[in-house]
Amino acid sequence: MDDNKQNRTVIEAEIPMGTVHPAALEPYRLRLFVEDEIVRDAEITVGVNHRGVERIMEGLPVEKANSLTEKICGICSNSHIWNSCRTGEIALGIEVPERATYIRIIMEELERLHSHLLYLAHGSEVLGHETFSMRLFYIRETVMDLLGMIGGNRVQYGSAVLGGVRPRCELDEMRLQKITEGMDLLEEKITAFADRFVSDPMVMSRITGVGVISQKDALRLACTGPTLRATGVARDLRREMEEYDPFEFDVITQDDGDVKSQLLMRVFENFEAIKIIRQAVRDLPDGPITNRSWEMQDTPLTKSYIEVPRGTLYHSYSLEDGRVRNCVIRTPSMANIGAMQHACIGHHITDAQLSVVQCDPCFTCTDRAIEIIKI
Amino acid sequence: MDLTYSLIAVIGTLVVAFIVSLFLPGIERKFIHARIQQRVGPPITSPGIMAPLKFFFKQTITPESPMPRLYNALPLISLIIVVILLLFLIPQMYFVGALASIIALVGFLKVEEIMYMFMGSLSRSVLSVRMPFPDKAKGAAHPETPQSFFEDLSSLRAFRLIAFGSFPLYIAMFVAVAMTGSIYLQDIINYQQVHGPILFTVAGVMGAIVFFIGYMILLNEYPFAILKGKPDVVEGPYLEYAAKYRAYVYITRGFLMFTLATLFATLFLGIAPNILNPSFIITLIVALLFPMLMAVLSAFSPIFTYKQFYPTVAGVSIIGVLAIVAALL
Question: Which residues bind Ni(2+) (chain A) (predicted)?
Fold first, then answer.
């Protein structure tokens, strides 16, 4: 018997949730080990929706492979294609025009906005607050319209290409005006929501002190992104990305590490995203949006990290005859799974889904590895 | 003549109650929830009429249950209990004596509550089935743990609801008893015809608030939806009901909404349900107001866990006890 088994808590019963549970919205299995409805241990398993994207990418021409990465996630599709292109650009030494970088950042921050609003809406739904959820989805529509206007689609925008952005994502005066108006509207709506949210005693009593992840645990469990920042760690990869150098923004942190902190974290990050978009629109440089003067060559394994709405996204691949080799992708939810399990422990079963959802999981995108076993 | 009159009153009241109750879930969803949530919402007939109709014509499945026939019969039994409850509220039925008393009504409501426990303990849904192999990717932290089904959980919660959750409703019912000094509905109504409705007294107002909270708890509406919370037990006791059995569930809920509102009108306004009495319109207004108020409150509430549920029930029960004390003074 291993040490792990000896140290295990005595478990009264297991309540398995999933792989498809109506509150989860994603296929994952949450096993809750409970004692009188209090969770004593939790276990999350992913792997039921593995699509083998890396395997499919293997051997594809790099631009096709980049496009494919966008299909990994329906929420942060732009983040994937941007990071994949960024990996290729680092490997091939492609200089991205400044205007293209600004457009990419506008897209990325719009995506952060819609992802955070979706998170808040989903969180409210799991909380049982259908009205908040519906209203947040309405607020999100403004962002979706803007993304649709720029990228041509509401989910798969296909904006980034090696060396810049696609011609259809060029921002003319009319589009810039619409983005500015959209930001004004969003700021007003999100402020109104935030006021209503924090002044609701019933909601606050449900989320305060629930699903706590301490700073020590967050670091121990290698959390990333807003999940980490909600525990008081001011780590935002955007500060280390040269693309974000021209922009002024604050790294939002919260101290308590509970569901309340996680939700407020995203609310305040929305304002920072709006701030960045406004700066990008105001200072958008003139010039080309694509650099086509580069040559394909074989490259060693190259990696790229960017800060996406859920945390740090990692892409790496090498190039051989213009084709992708040894591709590895790691999404932020992979890093946050430990925290999700940890956050459930000690709380009521009803709080378990909330504790998982507070880390903004995206399990379908996280399904990157499988283990074949004999049954 | 008297017998014909009584038969018309009883059957007519039940029929009207049945028809009105079919619209209540639709009113709740369409005019309150949907309006608050700034969406169109379903047609008013959808949740109460069209959905049960649809379910009656769906193929019936055999549920995973140790006693499938009993399990399937429970929604119908539940409906019959609620019909009986309304039946004994009708003045023409007061000749049955003890059955038309608060004690009997409490008994019927308790039986209705126990149904949720039976539903939970007799169901085994596919949602809780263990995977056919141990979770090797994670190392299977607790591989041999006995498994609990969602329905077990809801059954346990139903037991707790019977033990303490429905306290407020019963306490509020005894406000009328304390004020009138009788457990019989006839006496309670007669008292209010002489002294005016109990609702317009201090004890009555307190009792009405407590009754309303109890009404929401008994109907398992948000924020008190601990039996069927989406984040954990999904639909709890109702999870496995399909086809016509689900239709009974829908109809029972609408009928219970109407019956509890009628009970309120009887105990706090002194107006018993009788289609041949013009004051029946007040019963109908109460029956419409209660779901509407409940829908407003539930649209702005998150789901409670025990952490919020226990203090709420305790606090409301204390107000109920104070109302009884005020009624006795």
Answer: 73, 76, 362
